[in-house]
From TrEMBL:
Major subcellular location class: membrane
Topology within the bilayer: Multi-pass membrane protein
Protein name per its UniProtKB record: Putative integral membrane protein (TIGR00698 family)
Intracellular or extracellular location(s): Cell membrane
Keyword annotations from UniProtKB, A to Z: Cell membrane, Membrane, Transmembrane, Transmembrane helix
Transmembrane region(s): 12-29, 66-83, 89-111, 123-144, 226-243, 255-274
One Pfam family from the record: Cons_hypoth698
Length: 277
């Protein structure tokens, strides 16, 4: 009975997140720019997700899956940079797309944007691309019965992973995805740049909550899980508003192609790494 209730709750979460995203897309053109609010919601959601993961659960994925996380993030990040150079796109845009597609979507873009020379248009374009292609991956992977591990390795946003994961595999998919999130710190630190701290505050919050999660009472964890769903749903709604078809049509074909190729790269690398390791 407890397992049934858990699966039913996971399905309700899936439905809420997907509906929130669709509503955002539908009404996006009628609302002001929600980028700043969405960014804060995404960061808050990542922090709260730390309570749903522990070091023991992360290590419980096994060395093979952890290696697959490292390989997928590395290949996608550096492969996207290489593809961007081939397409002769601005380096700032390429770094933003590489970070968002390889790690955790708009949250990664927000963490990296202060570390590279870029235009404001590059930030908006990369967020729109990661939302568009992440949504496509969120819909497509469940249709091919993707495993929770593959979904966690491939889908761009944390909230999109929560929406795409099968009811019985939500914890595994989120653990894999949050393993990717943990690699944001070395990426940000490696980029250097001006002024920003080497590790984003929201990522530190996530790591702290992950460390203390085994000590938190179950009732608090239940409340935190509900709060996380609400925050992620609001974030997905905000992301949905950034997907404006007319604006995407004005995006350069090279940027659209880079987003497509990066999505294929992360999905393909994730699949192959799970098969090989």
């Amino acid at each position: 009975m407890a397992a049934y209730r858990k699966r039913a709750r996971a399905r309700r979460v899936d439905g809420v997140l997907i509906v929130a995203l669709v509503l955002g897309v539908v009404v996006g053109g009628r609302l002001p720019d929600l980028t700043g609010v969405t960014r804060r919601l995404l960061r808050t959601g990542v922090v709260l997700l730390g309570l749903q993961l522990s070091v023991a659960r992360l290590l419980g994925l096994g060395p093979g899956v952890l290696l697959a996380v490292l390989v997928t993030v590395s290949v996608t990040f550096f492969g996207t940079l290489w593809l961007g150079r081939l397409l002769r796109l601005p380096r700032g845009l390429c770094v933003l797309v590489a970070s968002g597609f390889s790690i955790c979507g708009a949250s990664a873009i927000a963490a990296v944007e202060g570390r590279v020379d870029r235009e404001d248009e590059h930030v908006a374009t990369s967020v729109a691309l990661v939302t568009l292609y992440g949504t496509l991956a969120m819909v497509a992977l469940p249709l091919v019965n993707a495993s929770p591990q593959w979904i966690g390795l491939s889908v761009h946003e944390v909230a999109q992973v929560a929406a795409a994961a099968p009811a019985g595999g939500l914890a595994t998919a989120m653990a894999v995805k949050l393993g990717r999130v943990a690699l944001l710190a070395p990426i940000v630190a490696g980029l250097g740049g001006r002024g920003a701290p080497p590790v984003p505050a929201f990522l530190l919050g996530f790591l702290v909550l992950m460390l203390v999660s085994p000590l938190v009472p179950a009732v608090v964890l239940d409340v935190a899980t509900t709060a996380t769903t609400v925050v992620l749903a609001a974030a997905l709604f905000g992301l949905g508003t950034s997907v404006r078809p007319m604006a995407l049509l004005r995006t350069s074909p090279g940027a659209l192609l880079l987003g497509l190729l990066s999505t294929l790269l992360v999905c393909g690398t994730g699949y192959l790494s799970l098969r090989v390791v």
